[in-house]
Design brief:
By secondary structure, the protein is mostly beta strands. It has an 18-stranded antiparallel beta barrel. The two termini are about 35 Å apart.
Amino acid sequence: MECSKQSSKPGHQKAAPKPPSGRGVSSKVLSCLVSLLIFLAHVRPALSQEAVTMSLASAQAAEARHLAATTIGYYNLQLGDSYWNFSAALGADYDSNVNLTQQNAEDDYIFRPEIDVKLLMPVSDNNTLNVSLGAGYSAYVMHSELRRYYITPDTAVSFDVYAGDFWINFHDRISVTENSYQDPTVANNGAFSQLENAIGANVVWDLNKLVLRFGYDHVNYSTLASSTAALGNPDGESEVFSASAGCMIKPGLQLGVELGGGILNYSDSTTNSAFGNATDWNAGLLCDSQFSQYTKLHISAGYTQYLPDTQAASGAQDFSGVYASLGVTHRLNQYLDYTLSAGRTINFAFSGGTIDLYFVRWDASWKIFQKTTLSTSFDYEHGSQLGLNAEIFDRYGPAINFGRAITERMNATLGCQFYWRGSNLAGRDYTTFIISSNLRYRF
């Protein structure tokens, strides 16, 4: 993946009527930019899957925003110099175990109306404003106490500035979890919901063969569930710093180094020693390789250290060790594309406090039906809590999803997800399966 200086500075021509092509950037340059952005999502040491992590929301938001901005015909309304996309969706789910309990599991049906709005506004030839908003409501039929609003992970305000060899991105990203099972540390609680807001900036300095990246985010975590469900889960905030340097050794091979660090504070860390104020840092090496037209590989590995404030959290544990991340994207043949990701992280955004997490995820896209998309996945997670409770858990499960266009503006999806969770603590095992359907209309 080799991007010249030209590819790091798109948008130097006047905007035409249609936003995707109006920035005067060739398809080759756009493809190179998108590849760079996806690569950035993998190499941020403190924000992605390398060392200490917050969540995947920021990576998902960045990828979705830039893919949307470079897709022909994506926006369906022009108001002056701004371009808009509106869509609405209605989901209907069945959950066999809404409270994630080991015994006496209770099922329910959930309806989810949702609205999504996206805005692209070229402020100048070198500055672009992107706004994305997705919000909905989960209406549980039989468990009214679980009803709640949610905000999708790609909701963000983002402003891009291109100046010479620099690309600067200012952003504010917000999300509210939709389901308790989105957090693998949650058990015996169907009402857990967390707001996460990250405001910060990323800077990319493209020196042709050498690319330097710097990032900073201030992140707030707030539990939005009832007082009973939120017991022992204080609000928190963190300062996250990252830097990396990647050098193009030859076409298709980039090697580099990465550094990261963070400061974590909870609003009341003395009430639960699993939630302790802490600092962390990490340093490592990374490699990004395009083996062939159909195979990409990303590897990063290094050393990380997590240092809790033992006075505020006497039960917390110091941690130091190796972190690693592997990502493979491969097109096997005309019928199957798949990605495989695996690694070890220290994640402090979970309900269970700080978690030493091993993960493996396999995603596959099957092109065996002419008008219907088919995707499958399998997840495995092994986590150890770095706190007084010291829970050790395993969670794994497969998923399958179908998608089909009903009309030019409407599409439908149908999916099924299974989860099995086992814990060394009594009463924190569970099994659940979710059947979900969704109709989306694009105005």
